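Supplementary Text 2. Reproducibility record for the structural model of the 176-residue chain.

All settings were left at their defaults, and a single model was retained for analysis rather than an ensemble. We include the record here because the model underlies the residue-level annotations in Supplementary Table 4.
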Amino acid sequence: KILTGIDDLQQVKVLEMQVDTRENSLGNFGVYLPNLRELKLNNSLLVSVRDLGTTLSHLHILWMARCGLSDLDGISSCSCLRELYVAYNNISDLSQLTWLDHLEVLDLEGNAIEDINQMQYLGLCCKLSHLTVEGNLICLKPNAESAEEPDYNYRAEVKKLIPHLEYLDKIPASQT
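Retained model, structure tokens:
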């Protein structure tokens, strides 16, 4: 109530805060905010997405940029997510995102994605239309073991794996 300045937490739709889940788990704070649609946790310290608990199932937009995340385990409990912003973390495995049926916008800029095949998981997100992956190793070469190939085009590879994608790194995906 102090953070939102609102007594009736049922009315809170947007919340922005910084947390350190090493000291305090957020547990099931979503129980108190049943109508929360947007949550900004940028520059927080999150050990795991699981630290958010399982009660944020009505969230539509979640920001967790620069939070020290190394994986997305637990993101499936945010089943209504339409937009997810997790830039500048240390995420390399995208398999957990396959459970997000409503995901339309995904920002993975500056993460640790080093295998182009991770994009196959995003191909299963049938509503995904906007994706940002610049600043990941896959933009330079298909996987960590391969040498840089002069004719490698990550945009063309991503488009093959996610044919329904409309924008890649803020440029129409059709432009390879």
